[in-house]
Specification:
The complex is a heterodimer. Helices cover about 0% and strands about 60% of the residues of chain A. Chain A is an all-beta fold. In chain A, strands 2, 5, 6, 10, 11 and 12 form a six-stranded mixed β-sheet that branches. A four-stranded antiparallel β-sheet of chain A has the order 3-9-8-7, with no helix packed on it. Chain B has strands spanning about 5, 10-15, 20-25, 30-35, 45-50, 55, 65-70, 75-80, 90-95, 105, 110-115. In chain B, the strands form two sheets. In chain B, strands 2, 4, 5, 6, 9, 10 and 11 form a seven-stranded mixed β-sheet that branches. Classes of the chains: A mainly beta, B mainly beta. Chains A and B meet through strand 5, strand 6, strand 10 and strand 11 of A and strand 4, strand 5, strand 9 and strand 10 of B.
Chain lengths: ~120, ~120
């Protein structure tokens, strides 16, 4: 069984401030972790993913995330928020399930950037 | 850049009616998925499809749901007799492989409203 918990369904930050979106996972097998972003009226777009090559993963638009096995976390950060970062962010865990990829999403976090 | 497309973007239907949601996956992808997101809830896996067969389905994907790849490009989700609780955003996704590290590429979604 696998699951993802995203703490905070809504997060507000000021433009230029640090963005921190939290994600904790649960998995009985080695997990691979993803962050997707959804802009209004668009599909989910990959921001970054952890595939066990490196625990600190850099993605698009200045975002990064660190896989911490001891904390079962994969929090998403960006040093300085930009107005264009306003979107909904989804954390997901992916495992091999009977030979197929099984992806489980969190509930999503809506990021508001205040000018 | 290739992308997954979905039509229609919005669909309103009466309870008990059949609906078909359409998706065109990325052309060289072999694995196809449907997910749904009820308003305010998490993105949930419905079904995966490979080689003209369902490879995995969730408990949500009951007998009223079916999927089909009627030609080389389209991938459809049919809901035979819609219920009020089927109202949701439905996302199609596709990927090149079924590895747990693989990125799934998502379409913009179809918002289904059942009245």
């Amino acid at each position: 069984a696998q699951s993802v918990t995203q703490l905070g369904s809504h997060v507000s930050v000021s433009e230029g401030a640090l963005v921190l979106l939290r994600c904790n996972y649960s998995s009985s097998v080695p997990p691979y972790l993803f962050w997707y972003v959804q802009y209004p009226n668009q599909g989910l777009q990959l921001l970054l993913k952890y595939t066990s090559a490196a625990t600190l993963v850099k993605g698009i638009n200045g975002f990064e995330a660190e896989f911490k096995k001891s904390e079962t976390s994969f929090h998403l950060t960006k040093p300085s928020a930009h107005m264009s970062d306003a979107a909904e962010y989804f954390c997901a865990v992916s495992t091999n399930s009977g030979g197929y990829q099984k992806v489980t999403f969190g509930i999503g976090t809506k990021l508001q950037v205040i000018p | 850049e290739p992308e997954v497309t979905q039509t229609p973007s919005h669909q309103v239907t009466q309870m008990g009616q059949e609906v078909i949601l359409h998706c065109v996956p990325i052309s060289n992808h072999l694995y196809f998925y449907w997910y749904r997101q009820i308003l305010g809830q998490k993105v949930e896996f419905l079904v995966s499809f490979y080689n003209n067969e369902i490879s995995e389905k969730s408990e949500i994907f009951d007998d009223q749901f079916s999927v089909e790849r009627p030609d080389g490009s389209n991938f459809t989700l049919k809901i035979r007799s819609t219920k009020l609780e089927d109202s949701a955003m439905y996302f199609c996704a596709s990927s090149e492989s079924n590895l747990p590290t693989e990125t799934q590429y998502f379409g913009p979604g179809t918002r289904l409203l059942v009245l």
